[in-house]
Amino acid sequence: MACAQAAAKVAASASTPTATTSASRDGLAELIAPAGPACARRPPMVETSVLVMLTASLAASRSPGRGSLAEISGFGVLPDGPLKRPEDTILGTANGISGKGAGAMGLRASVAIDLGTVNTLVSVAGRGLVIEEPSAIALDRATGRVTAVGTAADALAGKEPQYIEVIHPLRDGVIAELDASVAMLQAFLRRARLHRSPLRSSVVVCVPSGATGVERRSLAAAVEALRLHSVVRLIDEPVAAAAGAGFDLADGSGGFIVDVGGGTTEAALLAGRHVVRVQSLRVAGNAMDETIVQAVRAEYGLLLGRNGARSLKMAVGVAADAAGWVEAVGVDAARRTPRAQQVPGWLVAQALEHPVATIVGSVQEILSDIPPNLAEDVVRGKIRLAGGGALLPGLADRIEAATGIPVLVVDDPLRCVVRGAAEILERGDGLEGTRPD
Asked: Would you say the CATH fold of 248-409 matches that of 18-76+94-238?
């Protein structure tokens, strides 16, 4: 009956994450969901409360011929059976952790998660960044067993190994495949030695500002399914990025942040912890890679992989003087054999023009509607550029030329969002602006 009600809720939603259909993903769903023919066929995204109920037996679930997720992945959850003594399982004491994470914070751990399209980063209070891995999971096609997670799984992407399916469970900054996301997060948090605690911990998950209600609930559901006994809150990525970029969110001053990630670009004008204007674009690093792949194929009949396109992107960028040549290796589209090709810089810059112009246009549009009282804060504080896309050669110069406002690439832009989320958790401010599950 509960499964029928959950299915009805999903059917009523305007959009849902993509359902998993392959044999390997069906096996993964069996490992995560409790046994039972009706529940096993449920769509992977349901309301948070239903998902938590259905996944309550995650650690003990079994499928014929398989062990638990813990046994299969090598990381898993706490061993079956009763909890150990609190001092053996509470973050901050079990592994001899000392310092700021010990004591009260050790008893109630604060965790910040940047669950990105390309990379997942996890920061734990008192320990700092503990996970920085590609958002990828590899499954055995026949059995559904988890064979690799993170870097090891991503290394197989696009290489078509027999019997292995590599899944990137997030698209455009939100969860597309819930079961795979839960299994991936489970493995990451086990690596981080983050166990369930008898006291509630605080978990903040960063989410694109343009994510729908369904997409937000799926993010919260993925974390709730880990059974960390935590209060899960969602915080818009621009707010976290602004904190990580050095803006003071406590005094109400203004700031402009542009966060160019793998799946989304967030351009936002803020006043303290509050978003004043924002545009969330599903045009970012992955879209840039795709335009390069298409351009090289059209010009030279060469099929490039993801890594080859990224290398060209970072080597050339959108610099106005994109001259010279860069070697790329791919597959000849006609002969289906490998070959090397010298690619001119102008072709790469031309391919990047549309996504870059879209990002610059969003910044200009926000500035055209800026409240006068924020103008001075933005000009003096500069537009701050974060995310992996901030490292694209020529992007900062393009934004500065188009707006007439200085643009600053923040320190360590790849970790800016998770750094800001962790800072907000540590100070305890900014949580009024988060959205609970």
From this structure: yes
pLDDT tens, position by position, 247-299: 987 778 899 999 999 999 999 999 988 999 999 999 999 999 999 999 999 99
Query: 3-class DSSP state for residue 59?
Result: helix
CA distance 209 to 236: 5
Angle among Cα 31, 185, 190 to the nearest 5 degrees reads 90
Half-sphere exposure at residue 360, Cβ-oriented, CA atoms within 13 angstroms: 20
CA atoms of 158 and 306, how far apart (whole Å): 8
Binning pLDDT at 50, 70 and 90, where does residue 49 land? Answer: very low
Q: What is the pLDDT of residue 198?
A: 65
3-state class (DSSP) for residue 170: strand
Give the confidence band of 224 by pLDDT, cuts at 50, 70, 90: confident
CATH number corresponding to 248-409? 3.30.420.40
Contacts of 100 by beta carbon, 8 Å cutoff, 6+ apart:
125, 126
Sequence ranges of the domains in the chain: 18-76+94-238, 248-409
What is the tens place of the pLDDT at every residue in 102-118?
333 334 568 999 999 99
Helix (H) / strand (E) element for 128: namely strand 128-134
Integer Cα distance of 414 and 402 in angstroms: 24
Domain 18-76+94-238 is in which class? alpha beta
| Percent helix, percent strand, percent coil in the chain, to nearest 5 | 40, 20, 35
